[in-house]
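In response to the reviewer comment on reproducibility (Comment 2.3), we provide here a single inverse folding case reported in full, input and output, so that an independent group could reproduce the run without further information from us. The C-alpha cells appear first.
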C-alpha cells in the first residue's frame, strides 16, 4: 500500500493525504497544533482506556 494513500474515496480511488491536508487547510483550525510528545503521550493512554472500558462493560452486562 502506498504510504500517502489514506484509504479509498467514495468512488474507489486512492486518497492522497497531502491533498486532503491542503484542501482542508490546517490554518483554519482554532486549535493550536500538538507537538509530537503530546501525541505520543495521548496515544499511550489508549490501551489503558480501552482496558478500563472493557472491564466496566463486562461488569455491567
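Designed residues, in position order:
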Amino acid at each position: 500500500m502506498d504510504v500517502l494513500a489514506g484509504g479509498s474515496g467514495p468512488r474507489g480511488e486512492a486518497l492522497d493525504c497531502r491533498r486532503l491536508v491542503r484542501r482542508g487547510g490546517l490554518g483554519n483550525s482554532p486549535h493550536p497544533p500538538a507537538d509530537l510528545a503530546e501525541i505520543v503521550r495521548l496515544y499511550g493512554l489508549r490501551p489503558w482506556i480501552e482496558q478500563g472500558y472493557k472491564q466496566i462493560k463486562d461488569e455491567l452486562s
